[in-house]
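Encoded backbone
================
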Amino acid sequence: MDTTPLFEFSDRSELRQWLEENHGTTPFCWVATTRGKEPRRGAIPYPEVVEECLCFGWIDSTVKRLDEGRQAQRISPRKKGSTWTILNTTRFKDLEERGLVTEAGWKAFREARKKEFVAERDLLKILRQLDGLGVRYWVDGGWGVDILAGRRTRRHRDLDIDYDSRETGKMLSSLKEAGFVVEKDMTPVRMELHHQELGYLDIYPFELFPDGSARQADGKGSWFEFTPDLFGSAVFAGRTIPCITVKGQRLFHTRLH
């Protein structure tokens, strides 16, 4: 097995300097390591390699014997969604407390722990927060269909909420205070937010009118117009939830496709 490029650092500070300069541009490398208690010239202890990798969002993988007492350890940037062991999570938190974790390391940690679907309990918690704000809203998309059905039929990556555009400031302030982070801002059409525990939330501002109709910006300088019969409610999980009606769901699906 080819072990190039191979670096024989004398201590972890040299590895850290190399990672500082190359972590964002180099696809991988091999590092000479030792796993025993006896130090070896041109090799650093394996646990120190692991820790420095964690600080920069890298990970160790394949290992190959070099010579007596030394191994070649392959290290490379972590892939999005890679698994974090309990041991590495503990190591990461210790490194963070010591002030050694870089922004690249934090990014890899956040990406790996990012929640990728919204469960029923997440849905209800978010809706309770919106109810507490007094914001007019309707659940749309996949969760809207399930609310109309009265049960969850499949997993949902996100929760879609149509809401009164006049409440944007109050709504965003409350969501950010609760831990949501804006990941995509496509104002005036929508915003995509993410919460580490609750998952993804897409919010769509609607301009509401006294007769019950509404309109939404289409992103092209015009508007989608909605009649009052597209907005309704249904009972789900023992409570009445505002949602887009079956007619509205069909209309929205047609426009999206």
About this structure: The helical segments are 12-22, 46-56, 86-97, 103-112, 120-133, 141-149, 168-177, 246-256. The chain has a mean pLDDT of 92. The chain has two domains: 6-112, 120-256. The chain is about 35% helix and 30% strand.
